[in-house]
């Protein structure tokens, strides 16, 4: 059994709302949101870590590339636990890179590097960790997407209205780059 707490983001969360309190979360029982075709589950966020890092999973089907974006103050880690995920990154010298990551593979994206990913196999899963001096961005997923109590993928993709993409950079350190075109496959 996992306890539920009320937070400023949700009426019921399995993540305690304050730092310094040990807790345990059963598989898949974190704060969930649907965004695009994916299910994002947050296990630890800024509230628990004094804005030093977050820990989340992204699960999804084989699909389209997510929009290119950049974090000005946040470093992001991609660790693939199931399926295959193609990570696209523009490095600090402006060179575009891509890498197919499979279970056990790791990708690191420094701050200020444009990046995106695409699930290459059905039932792919990425463990994500993000950290930086500007705080954490995990609440971006439910702000742009749709909070859910359901443990599975969305029945239909959750695609935000175009104007919503411009609402997240100031609070969550996520700036979308709608005109960016990847030169890769």
TrEMBL record:
Domain of life where this protein originates: Bacteria
SUPFAM superfamilies reported in the protein's UniProt record: RmlC-like cupins (SSF51182)
Pfam family, one: Cupin_2
Ranges for domain Cupin type-2: 60-119
Name the UniProt record assigns to this protein: Cupin type-2 domain-containing protein
């Amino acid at each position: 059994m996992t306890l539920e707490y009320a937070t400023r983001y949700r009426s019921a969360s399995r993540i305690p709302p304050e730092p310094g309190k040990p807790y345990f979360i059963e598989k898949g029982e974190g704060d969930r949101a649907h965004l695009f075709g994916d299910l994002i589950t947050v296990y630890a966020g800024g509230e628990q870590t004094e804005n030093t890092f977050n820990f989340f999973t992204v699960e999804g089907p084989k699909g389209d590339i997510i929009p290119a974006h950049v974090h000005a103050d946040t470093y992001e880690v991609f660790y693939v636990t199931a399926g295959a995920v193609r990570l696209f990154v523009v490095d600090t010298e402006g060179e575009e890179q891509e890498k197919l990551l499979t279970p056990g593979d790791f990708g690191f994206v420094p701050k200020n590097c444009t990046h995106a990913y695409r699930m290459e196999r059905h039932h792919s899963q990425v463990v994500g960790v993000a950290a930086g001096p500007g705080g954490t961005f995990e609440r971006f997923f439910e702000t742009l997407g749709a909070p859910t109590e359901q443990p599975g993928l969305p029945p239909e993709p959750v695609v935000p209205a175009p104007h919503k993409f411009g609402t997240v950079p100031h609070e969550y350190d996520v700036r979308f780059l709608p005109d960016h075109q990847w030169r890769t496959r």
